[in-house]
Amino acid sequence: MSGYALEIERVSKSFGALRVAREVSLALLPGARHALIGPNGAGKTTLVNLVTGLLQPSSGTIRLAGTDITPLTPERRVALGLARTFQISSLFPKLTVAENVGLALEARGGVDQRIVGRLRDRPEIVDGAAQTLDSLGLLGIAGRRIADLPYGQRRLVEIALVLALQPTTLLLDEPAAGLASADRHAVLDLLLRLPSSLTVLVIEHDMSLVFRLAQRITVMVEGEVMVEGAPAEIRSNEQVRDVYLGKRHHG
Amino acid sequence: MNFGATAVALLVSGVAYAMILFLMSVGLTVTMGVMRIANLAHGGFAMIGGYVGFALMNEAHFNVFAALAVAAAATMLLGAVLERTVYRWVYATGELGQILMTLGLTFIMVASANLWYGSNLHSMPLSAAMSQDMDWGPISINAYRLFIIVISTVIAGVLWVILEYTNYGAKLRAAVDNARMARCVGIDVPRMFSGTFAVGCGLAAAAGFLGSPILPLEPYYAVEYLVPLLMIVAVGGHGSLKGSFYAALLLGVIDTFGRYYVPALGAFVIYLAVVALLLWRPHGVFVRGLA
Amino acid sequence: MNTAAADIPVRTGTVQDAFSRHPLSWIDTLPWIAALGLYFAFPGYLALGTQVMIQATFALALDLALGFGGVASLGHAAFFGIGAYSAALYALHVSSEPISGLAVAAVAGGVSALLVGPVILRTRGITLVMLTLAVATLLQNLANSFDAVTGGANGLMGYPVAPLFGTFTFDLFGNTAYWYAAGVMAVVFFLSKALVNSPFGLTIRGIRENQVRMRMLGVPVVKRLVLLYVISGAFAAVAGAESAQVTTLVGLDSLAFSLSGNVLVMLILGGIGSLYGAFLGSFLFVVLSDRAAAVDPFNWLFAVGIVLVLAVRYAPNGIVGLVERAAAKLGRRPLP
Q1: How far does the CA of residue C82 sit from the closest CA of chain B (Å)?
Q2: Which residues of C touch A103 (CB under 8 A)?
Q3: Cα–Cα distance for residue pair C109/C193, rounded to 1 Å
Q4: Contact B104 C306 (CB under 8 A)
């Protein structure tokens, strides 16, 4: 029908009288690198929650590769190829890095409920984890517990985790948030090397990351899409500057 | 057909039971709403208040009001001291730890009660006037239950006024809605909470003491009423006083009617009701905010 | 980053170790070596030893649900009691053969968990705790009411228990009972171990650590928790059945809150989530309570309360945790 990897069609969400999203529309082609920016409280994370199914929209439709996923549970959406990271890394603290990635592989392989046989005897999990970690340079910390890792490494592990799911569409919620510049470079590096078949939507405040990664940018303010366009257009857009820098005084 | 008269009597009984539980639960609701901890020892404070009041009336020959006042004050003091000491540990630990620690506290309270008064049932002695049944035609209402209902409604009303119309109430509601934000706007959540915790214990003590003719005191009291209390908090929506008020009414009436009309299944009815309610609205049936 | 294929075996070795959690080791034989030793050293205390092993089996069942899955069950006695009553009723009305009695109990426990699980495992935190308590209390009420079947407050007693494997009679001296309990404990332990080492074992620990993330991996969390609860319920029922068979007495106290509370304390003492904690905790608790509770049950309860508070504060991982910390300090690899 449309050939879009992800379509958000006039999605609205209200909590009683509070409208957190109004008629938001967004469409991503396969392989897109799309950034979602806007001031705090604009509703960006809410939108991601709506797309992943943690929240139900008050109205509107969400489609993943043409399939209407609006009535589906979060688990079903993941099974259809949708994955996300969280603003505050959502991992398994007392488990090791390898186990964290292993869980994603188990889930993807549909073996997470197997009660017979040892996990360590499953090459698809063990080797799969080794390969994923290796490709991200994280093999050295495979045996460390998440709780013992510095924040920057946890962010990277979370990306490894979602990549292990081999998603078709990836939603990243502020992947560089709270990171020192060296870690930011590592994250950007990683994002730039993501498979070109993967469709990526990134929420970010770090503008240098946004402008280096994004092909298209959507600006959200107070639950609404204010403007959408190519990076150059957005960068020179007066309204966008006002939203971020405040109205300038004349004269 | 006596159904009407029976129904009224059951209703009165159910509402009285509900009111006692509601007063007991106030402290628990606020603790869960503000500090977000599960305080399984809360029933113990009710029990302590009951025993202290009983002892004062029985041994020191205090009258009802003096006994009530001193029992409530003593329990508040105990609550305040524990909150500053043992509960600091409870705040610092995870969900399971909170459950275990407060459970341990409950065991200590149960054991202490037994050491002090043994395992017989005790309750606040009632005057003849208080324990009579008042007859209005075919309808017979127990005076003491009516008294409980009246006094609890008054207290609930006072609580509501405090919450809605005072500065302190506004701060408390803010703290329940979002403790972190409340701190940011300058509300000293931990300090405010210490006082609130003590008040909650005092209310529980009053409920335990005044309610003892209906819910007699014995060492396992603390554990016995834990499930109904938790049910009220769960159905009412954690941290919602209005919610727990309605939940208490609902559960108290259902339980009383259930036990009367289906005695073989007794407790079954209320558990089924709670499960059904929670399946329908997992976050609590009457929710949103402290008031 | 280009890496030679020859490096992979080395790296995979590391990654594989990063998954290892409960490998078979010599430590696993200790409980039975101890049982053997105690059998000869204290022949007059066989009944107590049997009790320890039954409670250890019960504790293992709870450890699976609580320690590995994070399900805070304060009402696990429900399954123990279901198992006890099932075994007794089976012996009374069908067959006195003990092993099939255990199987019947396991099915009863599992089915009960299957009925209750999907409802209560959707909830979390204090609501879940309350519901587990409610279920156990409800069962106790039901057992009391339907006294035609359950014997009510008097319970069931005097039902026959056939000799084990047709040869070993359950005599008054308790020899058969002791080794019966040891055998059941072994089966439950090694099955639990296999479960923990399986892919499902990792899944369940993931659920304990972060339910939302598990959902975001596409895992149907409630379904997995129900499976865990069914297994845990079945094992707990087996413990209850054993208890019914060796004492030929089942009463309302097999559904009592104190039973749920005690097994919880055993796990805290020994260490949650390690399987070994079940052995240490049950040994300590049953032996101590046998001495102390006989003297003064309420002072014992007082002591238990204090231990709970102090243990959570100072030794949240129980004795196993303390041993691990000590071993780590001494530079050796900590216990798995």
Answers
A1: 17
A2: 202-203, 206, 214, 217
A3: 20
A4: yes
Nearest residue of chain C to residue A117 (CA atoms): C198
d(CA C214, CA C202): 11
Q: pTM here?
A: 0.90
Number of separate domains in chain C: 1
Residue to mutate among C10, C12, C192, C217, with most A CBs inside 10 A, is C217
Mean pLDDT of chain C: 89
Q: Closest chain C residue to B109 measured between Cα atoms?
A: C302
* Structure tokens given for A32: 């897109």
Per-residue model confidence as pLDDT tens digits over B11-56: 999 999 999 999 999 999 888 887 788 899 999 999 999 999 999 9
Buried b (16+ CB within 10 A) or exposed e, A111-149: bbbbbeebbbebeebbbbbbbbbbebebbebbbbbbeeb
Separation between Cα atoms, residue C140 and residue C253, nearest integer Å = 8
Q: Kindly identify which residue of chain C lies nearest to residue A80, measuring between CA atoms.
A: C218
Instruction: Assign domain A6-245 one CATH number from 1.10.1520.10, 3.40.50.300, 1.10.3720.10, 3.90.770.10.
Output: 3.40.50.300
> What are B85-134's pLDDT values in tens digits?
999 898 888 888 999 999 999 999 999 998 888 878 888 777 777 777 87
The DSSP 8-state label assigned to residue C66 in this structure reads I
A202-215 tens-digit pLDDT? 999 888 899 999 99
Under an 8 A CB cutoff, do C145 and B99 touch? no
3-state helix, strand, coil in chain A (%, to 5): 40, 25, 35
- Taking an 8 Å Cβ-Cβ cutoff, which residues of chain C contact chain B? 66, 70, 72, 74, 119-120, 122-123, 125-127, 129-131, 133-135, 137-138, 141-142, 145-146, 257, 261, 264, 268, 272, 298-299, 301-302, 304-309, 311-313, 316
B39-51 tens-digit pLDDT: 999 999 999 999 9
The answer to the question of residue C291 being in a domain is no
Name A199's bridge partners: A169
Q: Is the C-alpha dihedral spanning C86, C89, C94, C95 positive or negative?
A: positive
Contacts of C307 in chain B (CB under 8 A): 104
Closest CA to A171 of A209, A205, A201, A138: A201
Query: Is the CA virtual torsion C88, C92, C93, C95 positive or negative?
Result: positive
Structure tokens at A62: 């969400």
**Domains in chain B with CATH codes:** 3-119+126-131+141-280 (1.10.3470)
C312 and B226 within 8 Å at the Cβ level: the answer is no
Number of cross-chain residue pairs from B and C with Cβ atoms under 8 Å apart: 121
Q: Quote the domain boundaries for residue C250.
A: 27-256
Residue B111: phi, psi to the nearest 5? Answer: -65, -40
Q: What confidence tens digit (pLDDT) does each residue in C264-288 have?
A: 999 999 999 989 999 999 999 999 9
Report if residue C207 sits inside a domain.
yes
Is C94 part of any domain?
yes
What's the mean pLDDT in B179-186?
A: 68
Half-sphere exposure of C163 (CA within 13 A, CB side): 6
CA–CA distance, B22 with C307 (Å, rounded to integer): 31
- pLDDT value, residue A250: 43
Q: Cβ separation of B111 and C298 shorter than 8 Å?
A: yes
Distance from CA of B68 to the nearest CA of C (A): 27
- Residue with the two structure tokens 């498979």: A195
Mutation for C interface: B103, B220, B254, B272, most C CBs within 10 A: B103
Q: Domain coordinates of chain A in residue numbers?
A: 6-245
What 8-state DSSP symbol labels residue C43? Answer: G
Residue in the structure block whose two tokens are 């997992």: B282
Task: Report yes or no on C331 lying in a domain.
Answer: no
- As for the ipTM of the complex, it is 0.89
Q: Which residue of C has its CA nearest to B233?
A: C127
